[in-house]
């Protein structure tokens, strides 16, 4: 299934939202706690917005295009792969990026602790 999602992930990287670009500029190159994040990470039947594989953390940005039921199903399925999933609204990323990064930092530290 991963091969089938790779072209989709590539297209999503090219068509990133403003919120995704803003967050990626702060997560890339190990800027947050030295954690390596990847974006548009194929996993199962989904492409996660951001993932830190070493901490088993997925960060999803929501712009309201799905709905709570779809997001809940997606979260459950991603968690079945052993990942913790955290979600933020696009608006929050754009309006208070530092608060979003602090929340991700806290989750990262918990994730690294679970892996040790």
TrEMBL record:
<feature type="domain" description="DUF559">
    <location>
        <begin position="4"/>
        <end position="108"/>
    </location>
</feature>
<dbReference type="InterPro" id="IPR011335">
    <property type="entry name" value="Restrct_endonuc-II-like"/>
</dbReference>
<protein>
    <submittedName>
        <fullName>DUF559 domain-containing protein</fullName>
    </submittedName>
</protein>
<dbReference type="InterPro" id="IPR007569">
    <property type="entry name" value="DUF559"/>
</dbReference>
<dbReference type="InterPro" id="IPR047216">
    <property type="entry name" value="Endonuclease_DUF559_bact"/>
</dbReference>
<dbReference type="Pfam" id="PF04480">
    <property type="entry name" value="DUF559"/>
</dbReference>
């Amino acid at each position: 299934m991963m091969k089938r999602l790779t072209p989709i992930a590539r297209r999503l990287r090219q068509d990133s939202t403003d919120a995704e670009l803003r967050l990626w500029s702060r997560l890339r190159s190990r800027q947050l706690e030295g954690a390596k994040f990847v974006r548009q990470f194929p996993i199962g039947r989904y492409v996660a917005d951001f993932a830190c594989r070493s901490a088993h953390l997925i960060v999803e940005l929501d712009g309201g295009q799905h709905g709570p039921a779809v997001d809940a199903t997606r979260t459950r399925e991603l968690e079945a792969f052993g990942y913790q999933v955290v979600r933020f609204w696009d608006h929050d990323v754009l309006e208070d990026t530092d608060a979003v990064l602090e929340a991700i930092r806290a989750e990262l530290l918990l994730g690294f602790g679970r892996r040790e």
